[in-house]
Amino acid sequence: MMPPDNVDLVRRMLESLDPFRIEALQSMLDEFIDPDIDWRAVEGAIDDVGGMRGTEAIRRYMEDWLDEFDELAMRPDEVMEVGSDRVLACLRLSGRAKQSGIETELKFAVLYSIRDARLVKVREYATRAEAIEAAGFEESAMSRENVELVRGLLEAFRRRDHERAFDFYDSDIVWEDNANPVDDIRGVYHGHEGVRTYWREWLSAWRDLQFEVQDVRDEGDEVVALIRNQRQWGRHSGIETEVPPYGLVFTFRSGKVVRWRSFPDQATALAAVGLSE
Question: What pTM was estimated for this model as a whole?
Answer without folding.
Answer: 0.54
